[in-house]
Amino acid sequence: MQSLLESLYYGHLIPEEQLVPKDPMYRKKGREMSEKIESWKKRLSSDEFAELEALLDLQQQIQSMEMTAAFTYGFKLGAVMIIEIHLDHGVGNIANQDDE
Fold this sequence. Notes:
The protein is mainly α. It has helices at 4-9, 15-18, 24-43, 46-88. Helix content is 73%, strand content 0%.
């Protein structure tokens, strides 16, 4: 079994492909979105619907960039917190430290 670091290096660790929100509203909202898209597809001409799809694709690209930035920031923040813990207290002293 590969370590997490090896999995990351070889491109096997892809969190967004493994993550499905557990919120019960997630699937409901997904179905609702699909139904609305089908409704618009019936109401619009094929050219108009193509424009709508392009707009939705653009929104998805923007959202993906925002999610990537949030993930990266969160990951860095977590790493800095771990470093801070080790520098301030040392691994062996964590249990013996009072809250400051």
